[in-house]
Structure formats: structure tokens, C-alpha cells
């Protein structure tokens, strides 16, 4: 990081930033982005938690984690964070399955306060709604591909989340893009449409090229950023991560955000 970036991060509010990573449609690559950004942020010196809402647990598997519990268990006070982590590789990135929301007695302290960033590899229900944890995030990152069907799905996703959660700011990552010119055209059109018809701001967080090393890392059961530090996709993820600190924080919801994941 250069000096200006280091100074900006030191002066940034010391809050635990929560980011919901949402796929525009199945296969967009949200898990790749969520896990890759977790490792890219850790390379910048952050302690990061990634909550995996995928029932198949792809992010947990690719991270090499062997959790004994879920984030819901921790937020509900049923077990400590250290107990829930179980056996895990030494890393600044903590990966836990999100678990299911239940009624509970909340722990006395916020178990997420030790993390600079919490990312949620978000799942949606049949109506396109997010979990309480993802719905209470400070930032929404929509992952899409440079194809017409994905562009249409990304706009529909943004429209739905705006109506459900009154989100006004969205960030886009274009995955498997050919070049920056294509990305700028796609995100520029979405930004203009969103501003005109929804009154929302849609910004381009960055893009990733189609990188065979990402596919290879999945075959190896690894995160691409960890397995291939010099890969083109890793460079793209690190560039996105370096800009996250400048994203505006969405106002806290009325309920306690620390326990939103396990609200009834």
C-alpha cells in the first residue's frame, strides 16, 4: 500500500464493516469473489471473517476450515468464537458457516468486534430476500458476468434489494470480463439506469478477467489469492480490496446489527 492508502485506513472509523456479496444469478462467481476478497483484505493487515451461507459450504471447503459450530451459534451465545472455529489453518481469515437463525439470549459482548471486516457469501430465498445478517450489511456487492442475461439479472437483483431493504448504494464486480472497456460500458449503463429509474447509486468496484488459475485453484480446493498470488484474478481482487475502505457505510438498522443474523 502507498502512504496515502495507509493514512486513509488509519483515519477510517474503527467499525466492523459488514459486506454482503450477492450473486446476480447462479454461477456468477460470488463465492470466488467473497473468499478472494477476504484473503486480499487480510494481505492489507485486516482480520477478516467470512460467513458462508451456501448450504454446500463451498467457501468453508476452499478455505480449508474445519469448524465445530456456526456463526449463528456464536452470535446466539451457544459457543465461543474459538470453540466454533474448531481445527483450522493459521490465517488472518476466519471462515464459518452462517448457520440458521434462532431465538436466543445474546452474548454480553459483540463477538464480531475483533474483526475489521465481515463478509457474507450471501444466499437468497425464493423471493430473492437476504438473510438478516446479509440484509443488515453496510455495503452490498453484486457479482455479475459480462453477458446480457447476467446484466439483466444484476439490475433485477439491485431493484429487488432496493425495495426490500431501502439500499441506496450498490457496488458491482464484473467477473470473467474480457477487458476494462467492456466493464466500463456495462457498469456505466447500469449506473445510469439505476439512477434514473430507481434513484440508487451503482458503482463499479472492479473486475476480474477469465483466469484459468481460478479454475485450477478450485480443483485444488484452495482460494486463488492464497494459491496463486501473482495470478491476474488475484491482482483484480487486491485492487478491489484496496478501495473498500472508501465505500460509504450504510446507516445501522434499528435492531442491533451485531445480532441481526440470529433475529427471529
Task: Walk me through the structure.
This protein has 264 residues and is an alpha/beta fold. It has a single domain, classed as Rossmann fold (3-Layer(aba) Sandwich), CATH 3.40.50.300. 39% of the residues lie in helices and 17% in strands. The chain has eleven helices and seven strands. β6 (169-177), α8 (180-197) and β7 form a beta-alpha-beta unit. α2 packs across α11. It is globular and about 50 Å long. 46% of the residues are buried. The model is unreliable at 254-264 (pLDDT under 50). This is Flagellum site-determining protein YlxH. Residues 19-199 form the CobQ/CobB/MinD/ParA nucleotide binding domain. InterPro entries: CobQ/CobB/MinD/ParA_Nub-bd_dom, P-loop_NTPase, ParA/MinD_ATPase. Keywords: ATP-binding, Nucleotide-binding.
In brief, what are we looking at here?
The protein is an alpha/beta fold and 264 residues long. It has 11 helices and 7 strands.
Amino acid at each position: 500500500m502507498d502512504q496515502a492508502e495507509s493514512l486513509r485506513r488509519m483515519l477510517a472509523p474503527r467499525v466492523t464493516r459488514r459486506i454482503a456479496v450477492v450473486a446476480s444469478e447462479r454461477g456468477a462467481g460470488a463465492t470466488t469473489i467473497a473468499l478472494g476478497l477476504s484473503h486480499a483484505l487480510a494481505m492489507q493487515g485486516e482480520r477478516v471473517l467470512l460467513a458462508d451461507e451456501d448450504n454446500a459450504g463451498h467457501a468453508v471447503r476452499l478455505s480449508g476450515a474445519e469448524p465445530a459450530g456456526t456463526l449463528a451459534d456464536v452470535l446466539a451465545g451457544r459457543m465461543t468464537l474459538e470453540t466454533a472455529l474448531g481445527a483450522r489453518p493459521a490465517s488472518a481469515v476466519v471462515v464459518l458457516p452462517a448457520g440458521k437463525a434462532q431465538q436466543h439470549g445474546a452474548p454480553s459482548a459483540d463477538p464480531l468486534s475483533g474483526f475489521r471486516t465481515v463478509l457474507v457469501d450471501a444466499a437468497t430465498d425464493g423471493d430473492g430476500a437476504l438473510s438478516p445478517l446479509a440484509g443488515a450489511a453496510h455495503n452490498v456487492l453484486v457479482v455479475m458476468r459480462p453477458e446480457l442475461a447476467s446484466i439483466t439479472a444484476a439490475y433485477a437483483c439491485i431493484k429487488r434489494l432496493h425495495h426490500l431493504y431501502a439500499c441506496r448504494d450498490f457496488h458491482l464486480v464484473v467477473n470473467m470480463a474480457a477487458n476494462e472497456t467492456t466493464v466500463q460500458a456495462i457498469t456505466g449503463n447500469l449506473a445510469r439506469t439505476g439512477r434514473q429509474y430507481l434513484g440508487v447509486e451503482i458503482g463499479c468496484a472492479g473486475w476480474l478477467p477469465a483466469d484459468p488459475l481460478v479454475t485450477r485453484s478450485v480443483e485444488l480446493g484452495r482460494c486463488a489469492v492464497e494459491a496463486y498470488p501473482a495470478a491476474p484474478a488475484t491482482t483484480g481482487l487486491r485492487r478491489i480490496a484496496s478501495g473498500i475502505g472508501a465505500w460509504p457505510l450504510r446507516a445501522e438498522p434499528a435492531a442491533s446489527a451485531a445480532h441481526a443474523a440470529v433475529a427471529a
